[in-house]
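With this grant's support, we have settled on a layout for protein records. One resulting record is reproduced below.
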Amino acid sequence: MGFCLFDNIAVAAAHALEAHGLSRVAIIDFDVHHGNGTEDIFRDEPRVLFCSSFQHPFYPFTGHASDTANLVDVPLGAGAGSAEFRAGVRDHWLPALDAFAPEFLFISAGFDAHVADDMSHLQLTDDDYTWVTQELLALARRHAGGRVLSMLEGGYEQGALARSVVAHMNVLIG
């Protein structure tokens, strides 16, 4: 399901665990689509905390309503915007991430939940991507020595994608 043939973020996280001896990594997925492939790969892997936000119900019609030990989903209804997204991150992702204290943070950075992107019915803005990246980078500094890897996942309206990526990267590079 989904649009990916290879789950690049899952490969990177698995490599970090096995080749570099890490004991806890977190994967954060903000995208209009649920990260069901990543979730399925790491469902029973206690060394990985997976946090995902997505439009629900929406393709591929996955995601669950309650958090489990290592899966934290933030399903957003059509029309949801900054307030709902930021509340989900503050109320669900950040407490789980702080408790887990990952040694490395992997970001599946999808920008197709942008208000200008007709792929979804979510209403996120460039400022939301700046804000979430600031929150995640602060968390990585607290727990992971600032170690972050970000991979571009989605975004289909070129102007919104370009602005969102620049907002995200400006935070990451300082």
